Amino acid sequence: MISIVKIGGNVVDNPVLLGRFCRDFAAMPGAKLLVHGGGVMASQIQKALGMEPLMIEGRRVTDEESLKVVTMVYAGWCNKHISALLQANGCNALGLAGCDASVIKASRRAPKTLSDGKTVVDYGYVGDVGPESVKAEFLRLLLDKGIVPVLCAINHDGEGNLLNTNADTISSSVAAALGGRLVYCFEKKGVLSDVNDPGSVIPHIDKASYAALKASGVVAAGMIPKIDNAFAALENGACSVVIKHSEDILVESAGTTFSL
After folding, report:
1. Model pTM?
2. Residue 115 Rama label (left phi>0; alpha psi -120 to 50; beta)
3. Do the bridges between strand 204-205 and strand 256-258 make them parallel or antiparallel, or are there none, so unpaired?
4. Is 239 exposed, middle or buried (0-12, 13-18, 19+ CB in 10 A)?
5. Residue 109: which of 67, 137, 53 has the closest Cα?
6. Secondary structure of 97-130 as H, E, C letters
7. What's the whole-number mean pLDDT along residues 236-245?
8. What integer pLDDT is reported at residue 56 of this predicted model?
9. Nearest to 69 by CA among 49, 84, 92, 97
10. Measured between alpha carbons, how far apart are the two ends of the chain, in Å?
11. What is the mean pLDDT of residues 9-19?
């Protein structure tokens, strides 16, 4: 079984957590690939350049100047730094953006009506992907050769344009395309019923309980796209999904699991 692991920006930006994660990821048995974010660092660099990051419903609005920054951060520093750390741990990593070998081809997102049913937002140079966007046979070829793909959040539209895609969505799409096991890793133990209590992990969520958690406000903001992508992965062919702490990647019983 192929493991598709996604690591979030708060871990990517923490040298201690990232170092431990790369060591543990390298030790994972079987075929695997990694998808990483880097939004924390991208926002920091935007601010340093006098730009104000804009997030709407958990998604980054990406204008032309923001696209340059996120490409430098995601496809540049983050991707190559992670690949180097994995190589140091004996993992034969190959860093890729979606335009490399056209491994992921995205379509630019049309203006979107928000959850209030009225506000329309143009997210700019943002790409939407699904399982059909993924060149699964190329990824399988790399995996068969013992190469571990490391995918960042930058894709392309096939017409010369780079597009910024939510890394959780990329992970979901890749897991579905490969029929793999999806593991979302970030800085918390799983989905929490109380954000102030790290021990309040919800062990399992199905679609009915998810609706109740959203209605009560237990699940909100940036966690909603992650869970939406967890269910999308299951609906489109992934065999399992779990959200857990990056430190628990080798602990099978850890985190929050999902079912339809």
Report:
1. 0.95
2. alpha
3. parallel
4. middle
5. 67
6. CCCHHHCEECEECCCEECCCCCCEECCECEEECC
7. 98
8. 86
9. 49
10. 20
11. 92
User: Which class for 188: exposed (0-12), middle (13-18), buried (19 or more C-beta within 10 A)?
Assistant: buried
Output the CA–CA distances (angstroms, integers) from residue 172 to 124, 128, 133, 138, in the order listed: 22, 12, 11, 17
Q: How many CB atoms lie within 10 A of CB 66?
A: 23
And the tokens for 111?
A: 């203006």
The residue with tokens 């909603």 is 224
Cα–Cα distance measured from residue 56 to residue 67, given in angstroms and rounded to the nearest whole number: 16
What's the mean pLDDT in 56-61? 83
Q: Hey, what are 41's tokens?
A: 């660092």
Q: How many CB atoms lie within 10 A of CB 192?
A: 18
Mean pLDDT, range 106-116, rounded to an integer = 91
Q: Which helix (H) or strand (E) holds 72?
A: none
Side chain identity, residue 27: A
DSSP secondary structure code for residue 192 in this structure: B
Give mean pLDDT, residues 66-83. Answer: 97
Q: How far apart are CA 95 and CA 79, in angstroms?
A: 6
The answer to whether residues 256 and 243 touch, using CB atoms and an 8 Å cutoff, is: yes
H or E stretch covering 237: none
| Residue 23: predicted pLDDT | 98
Residue pair 163/156 in contact (Cβ under 8 Å)? The answer is: yes
User: Burial code of 12-42, b = ≥16 C-beta within 10 A, e = fewer?
Assistant: bbeeebbeebbbbbbebeebbbbbbbbbbbb
Place of tokens 């395309």: 177
Question: Would you state the structure tokens that stand for residue 142, as one six-digit string?
Answer: 């790399």
